[in-house]
Every structure is written in structure tokens, then in C-alpha cells.
Write a structure and sequence with these properties.
Elements lengths: L1 E4 L4 H9 L4 E3 L14 H15 L6 E12 L2 E3 L5 H11 L3 E12 L2 E13 L4 H9 L20 E5 L2 H5 L3 H10 L18
Helix pairs in contact: 3-4
């Protein structure tokens, strides 16, 4: 069994690589518009499942779909559509906590496993000048909630309650737990210090 990441996100790829997973990439294209009355948790889970199902799978791959959103005041903050939209989002997040939710779905043959991870991120107050500086860096582009915790925005984050990798874009521990549900076994030959020439 080998992972097939149904996403073009370099952050998700980096997290899987850092955790020692070998994987292939086949980005999935799905309609990401929320349904009326849909909660944030239902939204990210639905999109993760849609992405996992949108990619053709063979018997040797486990498809991994994921989607992340940021929630503040019960409003979902997706990727900013413009610099002004990024300023709006960052102003909402300034000086207060918010939630980051990621839906994860795995598919292997006819079997599926899925779940949602939630983390709380606390932002320090940001001045208008700091917001303008951060937007001008262009780091908010393509990021849910208009920030990347692993980048320049780390200077504004005072605390994270829950999974840090979830905030980056993929809760690696949840991915592993779901893989185990589907029968994944850590391969002996991948373990450090093992002499693969011996039986």
C-alpha cells in the first residue's frame, strides 16, 4: 500500500515527507462551495471525501483527501480572493482565538475512513501597519484564513491548542490513525537501523 495525495498543496506534501511517508500526487478538482446551512466540520469532511473519491485508485494505493478551513465568529474563512479580503480576515483574527478544522478522508479499494481535526490558534493583536506589511508579503495568498503559521505569520501566533500540523494543513497523527484502520502497517524495511539483507 502506498499513499496517493489528492492535493497539490506543497505544505501537505512537506508534512507527509517529514513524517516518513512515501507517496504520489494526483490533485483532485472538486466544487468547494459550501452548502446552505452546512457546518464547518461537515464542510471540510465532505470536501475531503469528495477529493478522495475524485481520484482513480488502484489496489496498491490509498487515496488521501483533505480540506482545511478557519472559523471565527461561526464564519468560515476560506482562501482570500484579494488583498482587501486578506486584510479583512486578518483584522477579524487579530487579538483573539479562532479554530482551524481539517477534514481527512482515506480510500483503499472499497474501504473508506475519515475524520475531522480541530485546533485553536491564538493571535496577538495586529496593528494596521502589521496587517498591511503581512498582506504585502503575499504569504496570505492561497491560505485558508489568509495566513501561514509556519511562515511570517508565526510572529503573530501566541499559542496553539491541539495539533500544530493541522494548522499547517494536514493533521498527520489523524492521517496515521485512519491508515491503521484501513490495515496500514509500517514497513519493516523502512525502519532505521534495520539490515534489510537479513531475514
Amino acid at each position: 500500500m502506498r499513499l496517493l495525495l489528492a492535493s497539490s498543496s506543497p505544505r501537505r506534501a512537506d508534512l507527509l515527507r517529514a513524517a516518513g511517508f512515501d507517496f504520489d500526487v494526483c490533485a483532485a478538482e472538486v466544487d468547494e462551495r459550501p452548502h446552505p446551512g452546512e457546518t464547518a466540520a461537515d464542510y471540510v469532511l465532505r470536501l475531503a471525501i469528495d477529493k478522495a473519491r475524485a481520484v482513480a485508485v488502484d489496489p496498491f494505493h490509498v487515496v488521501l483527501g483533505a480540506d482545511t478551513t478557519v472559523v471565527v465568529d461561526a464564519h468560515m474563512l476560506a482562501k482570500p480572493e484579494s488583498a482587501d479580503d486578506a486584510r479583512r480576515m486578518l483584522t477579524l483574527l487579530s487579538g483573539r482565538p479562532h479554530q482551524v478544522l481539517t477534514g481527512v478522508a482515506l480510500r483503499h479499494r472499497a474501504a473508506e475512513a475519515s475524520g475531522v481535526e480541530s485546533s485553536t490558534v491564538h493571535f496577538a493583536p495586529m496593528t494596521r501597519e502589521e496587517v498591511d506589511w503581512y498582506v504585502a508579503s503575499r504569504e496570505p495568498e492561497g491560505k485558508a484564513g489568509a495566513y501561514a503559521i509556519q511562515g511570517l505569520a508565526s510572529r503573530f501566533v501566541t499559542r496553539v491548542d491541539g495539533s500544530y500540523t493541522n494548522v499547517v494543513g494536514l493533521p498527520v497523527s489523524l492521517v496515521y490513525r485512519l491508515l491503521v484502520q484501513l490495515g496500514w502497517e509500517t514497513r519493516r524495511e523502512a525502519e532505521p537501523g534495520i539490515d534489510r539483507t537479513q531475514p
